[in-house]
Amino acid sequence: MSMLVMLFLMAELGTSEAQKQPSRQGQQKLVILDVDPGIDDAIAMMMVLSQPAVRVLAVTCVRGNAREVLLDCKNALRVLQAAGRADIPVYVGASLQLMGNDVYDYTYWNGRDSMGDAPDKYPPDYRLINQAEHAVLTLIRMSKAFPNQITLIALGPLTNVALARRMDPDISSRFKEIIIMGGNIRGEGNIGISAEFNFWMDPEAAQVVLREYKCPMKVVPWEVCQEHGLEWDFFANWTAMPTRRARFIKAISLNLSKWLRAQGEPTYLSCDPLATAIVIDTGIVEGVDTVYATVEVEGEYTRAQMVVDWWGFRRKTPNVDIIRSLNMSRYKSLLMTAM
């Protein structure tokens, strides 16, 4: 076992003891995770669930990485069980894009089940998935129960978040903040010429959220994710930790990591954990631009591209903080703690 792993295992033991100590609600950050669980969602969820100072009120699922939203919900429950937190409720959300444009017609790189096709040796009780209340109604209800207290972390397509705005316009100012992993700032696409996957899945929803929500919003774009990959040596040590969580992440990321290395990728790219990191540790952000941004929904080649008005040509009030750089040392520390 490497010295790096031993040091972090010692830190983990201390963290585990801290997690046993009761925390008063007023000292905790209240969070809702709106996700489409693929591999990076799983890592991001683990990061949040490892923090005793963060209280996850609910996991709301949206169709994204998985072909069906119910599979996203099952994947979310798998992550919660691996983290020992199956007590957190999971809600079924939007099963199709805001305008009904079904663009998902093939298996994405997360595997057929969006969890790397890793065997599920100990499947959770899927009856725990809450289908009595739609995820959008959950967002509305909880934003009323905890006004201006909840950080909504949106790691998938923004369909649920946009629908919540359509059903209850006042929700736009009831969240404390919204953290979004999605969009792009230089027109570099990872699913098309100019589109990032989450915005590509539902451009109209992304446009609604950026244009109409009034609470503070932070965006972690695709190009920034590319600049904050994990070196393969770190990735190997991190996933080799002898914990249930690490074994789970190693299993679901095995096929993807092999593929990335075969393609000659210099690092392991995982986008969603960057978004959760800035919630857990606000000091991790080293560069940010406050600007006006929207989403192109009509372009023949640029549909779903996030358009940033860097020079203020539209004379619009800035609506987002775009995260440009993070402290990698602090980020890796959070990842190790998550395991």
Give an overview of the whole structure.
- One of its GO terms (molecular function) is hydrolase activity, hydrolyzing N-glycosyl compounds.
- Belongs to the IUNH family.
- InterPro entries: I/U_nuclsd_hydro_CS, Inosine/uridine_hydrolase_dom, IUN_hydrolase, Ribo_hydro-like.
- It holds the Pfam family IU_nuc_hydro.
- The protein is α/β, with parallel strands linked by helices and 339 residues long.
- 47% of the residues are buried.
- The protein contains 12 helices and 12 strands.
- The N terminus is likely disordered.
- The chain has a single domain, classed as Alpha-Beta Complex (Inosine-uridine Nucleoside N-ribohydrolase, Chain A), CATH 3.90.245.
CATH class: Alpha Beta
| CATH homologous superfamily caption | Ribonucleoside hydrolase-like
Neighbour order of strands in the largest sheet: 4-3-2-1-5-6-7-12-10-11
What is the share of helical residues? Answer: 25-40%
CATH T-level fold name = Inosine-uridine Nucleoside N-ribohydrolase, Chain A
Tally the structural domains: 1
Please summarize the sheet with the most strands: 10 strands, mixed
Assign the structural class, choosing from mainly alpha, mainly beta, alpha/beta, alpha+beta, or little secondary structure: alpha/beta
Please state the average pLDDT score. 90
